[in-house]
Amino acid sequence: MGSYLTNNWSDSVAGGRGLADNSEILIDGQQCLHSLEEDVLDKVAVPHAQGQPRLWPEIGKSELERYLSRILTNARVPSDDEMALCRTYGHCDRGVTYRTHDQRTIQ
After folding, report:
1. Based on the structure, what is the number of domains in the chain?
2. Which of 5, 17, 77, 88 is disulfide-compatible with 28, CB 3.0–4.6 A?
3. pLDDT tens string 55-73
4. What are the C-alpha distances in Å from 100 to residues 9, 72, 104?
């Protein structure tokens, strides 16, 4: 199903009207979460049990239960150090998806 990585560090800004920079941000996994959203919002047909592409409302109860029982893993890091978060993001693509030069956090 996939996984995503978030920074769970949170601190309020002066006056307590919001979170400090880099609090509660998604570090890696945007494509995974976006794909899940596209499926649930019927924007893309996804192959289900027998490989037939179907929209969310078209899947049966047993397929729905199987789909919803899959685990979407979330890992969290606690940091207020932007460069450390950039390095963490950089480590996430090792051997999975090549990032172009402009997509890299550390040039």
Report:
1. 1
2. 5
3. 888 888 888 888 788 888 8
4. 28, 26, 7
- For the chain, percent of residues with pLDDT exceeding 70: 79
Per DSSP, 12 falls in state B
Residue 12 phi, psi (nearest 5) = -85, 150
What distances in angstroms separate CA 67 from CA 57, 60, 63, 82, one per listed residue?
13, 10, 6, 36
**pTM for the whole structure:** 0.67
Tokens at 28, concatenated: 């890696």
Q: Please spell the DSSP secondary structure of 56-91, one letter per residue.
A: GGGS-HHHHHHHHTS--EEEEE----HHHHHHHHHH
